[in-house]
Records
---
Amino acid sequence: MSAPRGQWNSKIGFIMAAAGSAIGLGNIWRFPYVVGENGGGAFVFFYIIFVILIGLPYMFAELSLGRATQKNPVGAINKIRPKSFWRLAGFLGVITGVGILSFYAVIAGWTVAYIYKMFTGNVGDFSAFVADPGGEVFLFVLFVLITTLIVQKGVSEGIEKWSKILMPIFFILLLSLVVYSLTLDGASKGLEFYLKPDFSKITGRTLLAALGQAFFSLSLGMGTMITYGSYLSKNDNLITSSVSVAIFDTLIALFAGLIIFPALFAMGKDPAAGPALVFVILPEMFLEMPGGLIVGSLFFVLLSVAALTSTISLLEVPVSYMIDDHKVDRKKIVWGVAGFTLLLGIPSALSQGANDFFTNFGLIPASYTGPDFLSQMSFLFGDIALAVGAISLSIFVGWVWGVDRASDEIEQGAPFFRKTRWLWSFIIRYVIPVVILLVLLNTVHIF
Ligand code: TRP
């Protein structure tokens, strides 16, 4: 991918890179705590519905737009409607990439620290750890630097090869942890909370959270898949690739829940602990488990790698935009975008107790999200911006570029799509924009 317009080495290379982007902290860290905050089973139910009915068909739209135009989000739109205001939808994606990266890398920094903590068995108190300003900033900067160095080199060589080996190991480790967690005393209470839907707990905020989580977890709504699709060849089958990515991604999130909730209820803790959840429950589980320190540090190594393949995809969107449209040198622009991310991310790094102002930032009211700067960024970029981006991009593909051209593109490499084009066209033109809009309006209390 370091060439101006590279291509994936193989079909599996694309699936691994797209899955690498999708699978990350969103599955292991964000999913369980959002489930916990939103009351459990009913949220999980809507999450799965949204992945299948909205996320997947929408993923075809981003990938086809990218492959057809061979461009980044802004360039893709500009190629179809030159100099139109639709380009704003692309810009929103570019900005959202930096916005998400700025807080995501803070959490990713924590996972790196926990490799060491688990290895030494000296875990300490989570809230004291995140309230230490020097440590927080150091870990955050470190993670942004690693991401930058890899994106600077182009990702196909290093990361594509690594993730092919490491992701399957991660999958197997998670599966074994599921088995372990299910044998803990009191596991069944956790399973009940996690899997038995109580629909009386569903509110507008819950639905947005489920939709936002579906988009966040699949890396949708900001043009990541436009960018990754632009490196695809015409022979690739967009549909089977998307379906494999979505299945992997959803399974890993569901596994994370199957590990966390039984363990959490076995320990008698509160599921609504927020972003701290995974970092409190899992280390405690590892400490009590035979051989847990080794397993625990291996777990955090693999989680750090999963986070890295995601931060790479976040940085790649603004970088590919600058390269395509401003003809700047990859090696230079990467550092520019990284510098901006660092500035934007320091407040998040300091918002977990290190600095009062950022910890109690509270610009967005408490009925939506926590007052700390990190939660506010996560709500603004991880929920709202992705939803707005997805509405704009689905309208653009469905109505402006047009479902016929998009369907022709999808059909290349996936001939069986011919029979279902009408259904997809209906979903992309009507269902997706309307459902997302309703959920969004409902959240900001317009209904
Ligand atoms: N999907 C990743 C995760 O679950 C995070 C991510 C990477 C992302 N690229 C994205 C989220 C683009 C939204 C949009 O960890």
---
Amino acid sequence: MERTYVMVKPDGVQRNLTGEIIARYEKKGYKLVAMKLIRLTREIAEKHYAEHIGKGFFEGLVEYITSGPVVAMVLEGKDVVAGVRAMNGATNPANAAPGTIRGDLAIEVGRNVVHASDSVASAEREIAIYFGPEELISYEKNVDGWLYE
Ligand code: DAT
Ligand code: MG
């Protein structure tokens, strides 16, 4: 089963959106397999956003993402990487469709409340930044038979 790395960003935590955001993934049927509240160091932020080092928005991005605690989690489900990206909506909330998390809950690109891995390879890389293998919990839920044929 596929896994993805998801993070409620500092603005999401500060705006009391953590529960609302997690509830959307839960209701969809994705399974939480790991979760914790953490504060990113600059070092972790640079690792996480390595692909954006050198871009004009990078310094602001690091300041923002390290400005307060985030809720880090791993979700599991069929095609969960693309599924969560679709639920989150476009990177810039101004372009995110109503019904998506960013479309409903955010206004500006630099305060877009949530992160999710953009590919299976990114998910593997990002999960390993935040969680050790022993923190990923495999378990059965008795709802599985109602979600998957
Ligand atoms: P995503 O978070 O949808 O994967 P990304 O990986 O391209 O988007 O960028 C990472 C974050 O950096 C994004 O969530 C918000 C910020 N960002 C991206 N492009 C930006 C821009 N042009 N101006 C300001 N912030 C930007
Ligand atoms: Mg990205």
